[in-house]
């Protein structure tokens, strides 16, 4: 079973730390009913693949799965807008009774005839999975009859959590897409970036740097990607895996199958950005690229770091000693920490709920101890912490923003629904400027002031 | 009279519709100290939650029974039980309101029976009200889920009463009313010396206010005690055709007569409401509303210049479609395209040639050549492609501020809509304004002219 295969991930330290028996159980822990939050496997699969911009993403299920969720992220495209079009089979009661396979086939046909995408991705969801719709068979027939790749994505919501969905999406790419097309030409400087979704255009904050180094992004999986790029990504010389472990299976299996070495890096934070550029250059040289790229990279890092620091310097004094509560997950829990500490901001806590063991080790390394690691903070606790002014600002995802705002505390979005791009040197300058702007907005003083008639009494 | 067209496509493209459980959860959010729960996979809740958070810019209490493959196949009793107990111990709400989803309906979980079992097994939750409503994702749409949830609340909470409170009136608002609309309606009813009880009351919970404390449940909305007291009301006022089954249910339970107002936007529609209230209460229409009525008349006169002859495309749930299409029709517009999500007895009376049960792709096609697109925020891509202004109406409205305070109801609400839409049409007057290059002569003419007179040496 695919799900079992994904659970048994040799590249995952957590998995490798388990006994044989435990490993068999996989990492599908039953979430506490009535006390769970977060997306499902389908959500994760869609997040991972939707940034492929020229593909039609067709959700096979009742209206909830697409109708309630579409168009809710800011993955940017430099061209095709097909990925922003919401396609769903909108299963009805009769489909549930008689099966939805025929409707699915007709839907694929309708989309190819009208929108002519290079490929259609078909996402399985709970209801058709439960009634036994065989989307793999439908996709196979559709590919043969309609002459376009039609890719089944087997990640129904009830299979597990969002992170599992990311991986299952990666499996679909490995099984059906990667390696199916040859690139027009290759260079010794071709890389893949895996797990970067180009949210708010963050890839474009990094790409000019790679261009300057002479590095070509053969495929970004999946930010601002075209179907063709992913299909020929097996010819890259090296790969960088971004965003912690979400798509580690893709990176590892591409190493296994095509001999593409990868490293795990981050675009968040000045130091991390430089490290990532250097690692890319080193990996490429190891793969046979001329070593002049190393010197080019050093010159680039030096110039860009200096420029970024100079731009941040203006805020340093105003931000020195400010206390930040960081509620996010994975790689951002440490990469942002390092960047903020560099300009004198104090981190009063960082959440590690979604972090891996490695992430936690990095935090320990950067912050000195474990005291600031928050495993699972209920909203009430966050509210209390903010109200008691143990932090000056909270950086988190959109879900917890109102906890901060209702406590009349500054808050800034650093998760997927954010409108600013925070990657690379540019992004870190933006992040610091945004924190400065948010913290020093006069609105906080105003909302905290009591009404004049109340003030007299107090 | 409109022809009602049914979709013939296999794929829905750019959905207009949202699912029943979301509508039901939305209704439950209008109950005070309530925790709505979707009985399904955690994604069902997560998507709904994100959508409502983006619309209201508020924390939304919404839980899940977190069903997975195994629990789905074995049946969800354990998960429902754990969810109820977990929510009881963590949040201790007055009401746990559960709706089903496509997943658990396909499996066929009998949640009514589950809840009976849970009640028997756990006397510690005796004080917590439990409401369940069946809302499969693959049937109906958002407004159906809302109405079904309100019916379930009435069934579970409202107590029949032999003695009536002579001035107490029930209000059953449809899902298309914003918190601001409900607030306005309550104020109108109260101004006649009546005591309104609203079920559900989003104006208490989702009106975007600063609260003194933090709570994991809803804060504000209909109290359980007030819902129970609705049996003593002398009449029920329902807004929107979707609420007719709920109003009937209320009448069956309490004996109180009901009236359904198909809409409360537009001059005559409000006139009817005020006349009914005056008759019921024996109180003449207060001066405030008379003044607002004349203001609306004036606004309509000012605005009609910009509405007259305009072609409008509307995509909305049936009751909202009904309200807006009639309003724009009354202002002299042509409803050139009307798309909706689900069935309603109103559809064939919409003032358009046809009403299609469809998606935003259908709306976009129909909107070619229109002057204005009216639909929820997901219509923005279509409006961009069509290069026409987009008036955001309905839920979700995630790319504008103030969704909860958007007022469409009453004389004042109607006036605000007319000004807002009128200003859009007014601003668009300059769109595509003429330039010296607007009327170029055809190539043939130019060639003919050039050929006719030899160029001067």
Quick structural overview:
Chain A has helices at residues 2-7, 13-16, 20-25, 41-49, 63-67, 93-98, 101-115, 126-131, 135-146, 162-177, 203-213, 227-231, 248-258, 270-286, 292-319, 332-342, 357-367, 379-387, 401-406, 424-439, 443-448, 452-457; strands spanning 56-60, 87-88, 120-124, 150-153, 190-196, 216-222, 238-241, 262-264, 323-327, 346-351, 373-374, 393-396, 411-413. Chain A is an alpha/beta fold and 458 residues long. Chain B is an alpha/beta fold and 457 residues long.
Please describe the structure with a list of short key phrases separated by commas or semicolons:
heterodimer, A: 458 residues, alpha/beta, Rossmann fold, 3 domains, 5-stranded parallel β-sheet, 13 strands, globular, B: 457 residues, 6-stranded parallel β-sheet
Summarize the helices and strands and which ones pair or pack:
The complex is a heterodimer of chains A (458) and B (457).
Chain A (H helix, E strand, L loop, with lengths): L1 H6 L5 H4 L3 H6 L15 H9 L6 E5 L2 H5 L19 E2 L4 H6 L2 H15 L4 E5 L1 H6 L3 H12 L3 E4 L8 H16 L12 E7 L6 H11 L2 E7 L4 H5 L6 E4 L6 H11 L3 E3 L5 H17 L5 H28 L3 E5 L4 H11 L3 E6 L5 H11 L5 E2 L4 H9 L5 E4 L4 H6 L4 E3 L10 H16 L3 H6 L3 H6 L1
Parallel strand pairs in A: 1-2, 1-3, 3-4, 5-6, 5-7, 7-8, 9-10, 9-12, 10-11, 12-13
Helix pairs in contact in A: 4-10, 7-9, 10-13, 14-15, 15-20, 16-17
Chain B lengths: L2 E3 L6 E2 L6 H9 L5 E6 L2 H15 L6 E2 L4 H6 L2 H15 L3 E6 L1 H6 L3 H11 L7 E5 L8 H16 L10 E6 L5 H12 L4 E4 L3 H4 L18 H6 L5 E5 L4 H11 L3 E4 L5 H15 L5 H21 L3 E5 L2 H13 L3 E7 L13 E4 L2 H7 L5 E4 L4 H7 L3 E3 L17 H18 L15 H10 L5
Parallel strand pairs in B: 1-13, 3-4, 3-5, 5-6, 7-8, 7-9, 9-10, 11-12, 11-14, 12-13, 14-15
Helix pairs in contact in B: 1-7, 7-11, 13-17
């Amino acid at each position: 079973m695919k799900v079992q295969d994904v659970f048994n991930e040799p590249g995952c330290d957590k998995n490798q730390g388990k006994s044989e028996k435990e490993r068999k159980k996989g990492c599908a822990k039953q979430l506490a009913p009535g006390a769970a939050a977060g997306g499902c496997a389908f959500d994760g699969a869609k997040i991972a693949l939707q940034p492929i911009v020229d593909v039609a993403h067709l959700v096979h299920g009742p209206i909830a799965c697409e109708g309630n969720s579409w168009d809710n992220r800011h993955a940017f495209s430099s061209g095709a807008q097909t990925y922003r079009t919401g396609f769903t089979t909108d299963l009805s009661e009769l489909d549930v009774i008689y099966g939805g396979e025929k409707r699915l086939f007709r839907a694929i046909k309708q989309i190819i005839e009208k929108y002519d995408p290079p490929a259609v991705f078909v996402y399985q969801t709970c209801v058709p999975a439960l009634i036994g719709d065989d989307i793999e068979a439908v996709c196979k027939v559709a590919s043969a009859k309609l002459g376009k790749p039609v890719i089944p994505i087997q990640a129904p919501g009830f299979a597990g959590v969002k992170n599992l969905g990311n991986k299952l999406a990666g499996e679909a790419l490995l099984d059906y897409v990667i390696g199916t097309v040859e690139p027009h030409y290759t260079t010794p400087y071709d890389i893949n970036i895996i797990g970067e979704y180009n949210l708010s255009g963050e890839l474009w904050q990094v790409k000019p740097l790679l261009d300057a180094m002479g590095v070509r992004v053969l495929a970004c999986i999946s930010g601002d990607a075209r179907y063709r790029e992913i299909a020929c990504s097996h010819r890259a010389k090296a790969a960088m895996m971004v965003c912690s472990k979400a798509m580690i299976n893709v990176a590892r299996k591409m190493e296994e199958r095509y001999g593409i070495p990868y490293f795990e890096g981050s675009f968040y934070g000045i130091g991390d950005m430089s490290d990532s550029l250097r690692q890319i250059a080193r990996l490429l040289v190891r793969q046979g690229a001329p070593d002049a790229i190393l010197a080019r990279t050093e010159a680039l890092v030096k110039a860009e770091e200096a420029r970024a620091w100079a731009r941040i310097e203006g805020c340093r004094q105003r931000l020195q000693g400010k206390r930040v509560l960081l509620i996010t997950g994975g790689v951002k829990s440490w990469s942002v920490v390092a960047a903020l500490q560099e300009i004198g901001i104090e981190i009063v806590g960082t959440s590690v709920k979604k972090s891996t063991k490695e992430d936690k080790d990095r935090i320990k390394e950067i912050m000195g101890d474990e005291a600031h690691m928050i495993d699972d903070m209920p909203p009430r606790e966050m509210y209390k912490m903010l109200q008691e002014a143990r932090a000056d600002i909270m950086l988190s995802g959109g879900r917890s923003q109102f906890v901060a705002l209702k406590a009349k505390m500054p808050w800034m979005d650093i998760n997927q629904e954010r409108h600013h791009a925070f990657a690379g040197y540019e992004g870190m300058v933006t992040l610091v400027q945004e924190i400065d702007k948010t913290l020093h907005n006069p609105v906080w003083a105003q909302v905290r002031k009591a009404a004049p008639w109340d003030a007299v009494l107090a | 009279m409109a022809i009602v067209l049914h979709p013939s496509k296999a794929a829905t493209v750019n959905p207009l519709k949202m699912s029943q459980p979301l509508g039901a959860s939305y209704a439950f959010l209008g109950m005070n100290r309530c925790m709505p729960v979707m009985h399904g996979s955690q994604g069902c809740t997560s998507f709904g939650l994100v959508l409502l958070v983006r619309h209201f810019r508020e924390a939304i209490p919404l839980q899940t029974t977190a069903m997975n493959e195994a629990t789905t196949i074995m049946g969800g009793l354990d998960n429902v039980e754990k969810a109820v107990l977990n929510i009881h111990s963590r949040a201790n709400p007055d009401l746990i309101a559960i709706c089903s989803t496509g997943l658990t309906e396909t499996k066929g979980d009998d949640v009514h029976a589950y809840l009976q079992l849970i009640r028997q097994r756990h006397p510690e939750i005796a004080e917590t009200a439990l409401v369940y409503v069946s809302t499969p994702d693959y049937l109906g749409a958002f407004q159906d889920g809302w109405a079904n949830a309100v019916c379930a609340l009435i069934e579970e909470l409202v107590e029949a009463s032999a003695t009536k409170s002579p001035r107490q009136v029930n209000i059953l608002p449809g899902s298309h009313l914003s918190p601001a609309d409900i607030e306005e309606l309550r104020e109108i009813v109260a101004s006649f010396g009546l005591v309104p009880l609203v079920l559900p009351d989003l104006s208490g919970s989702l009106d975007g206010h600063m609260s003194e404390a933090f709570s994991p449940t809803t804060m504000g909305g209909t109290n359980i005690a007030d819902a129970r007291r609705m049996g003593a009301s002398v009449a029920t006022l329902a807004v929107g055709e979707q609420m007719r089954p709920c109003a009937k249910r209320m009448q069956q339970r309490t004996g109180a007569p009901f009236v359904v107002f198909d809409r409360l936007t537009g001059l005559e529609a409000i006139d009817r409401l005020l006349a009914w209230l005056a008759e019921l209460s024996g109180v003449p229409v207060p001066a405030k509303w008379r003044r607002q009525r004349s203001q609306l008349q004036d606004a309509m006169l000012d605005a009609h210049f910009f509405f007259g002859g305009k072609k409008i495309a509307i995509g909305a749930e049936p009751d909202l479609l009904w309200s807006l299409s009639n309003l724009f029709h009354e202002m002299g517009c042509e409803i050139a395209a009307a798309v909706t999500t689900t069935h309603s007895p109103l559809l064939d009376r919409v003032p358009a040639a046809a009403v299609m049960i469809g998606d935003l792709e259908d709306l976009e096609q129909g909107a070619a050549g229109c002057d204005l697109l009216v639909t929820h925020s997901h219509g923005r891509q279509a409006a961009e492609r069509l290069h026409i202004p987009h008036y955001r109406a309905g839920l979700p409205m995630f790319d504008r501020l103030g969704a909860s305070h958007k007022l469409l109801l009453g004389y004042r609400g109607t006036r605000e809509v007319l000004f807002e839409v009128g200003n859009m049409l007014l601003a668009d007057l300059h769109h595509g304004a003429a330039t010296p290059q607007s009327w170029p002569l055809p190539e043939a003419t130019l060639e003919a002219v050039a050929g006719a007179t030899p160029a001067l040496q």
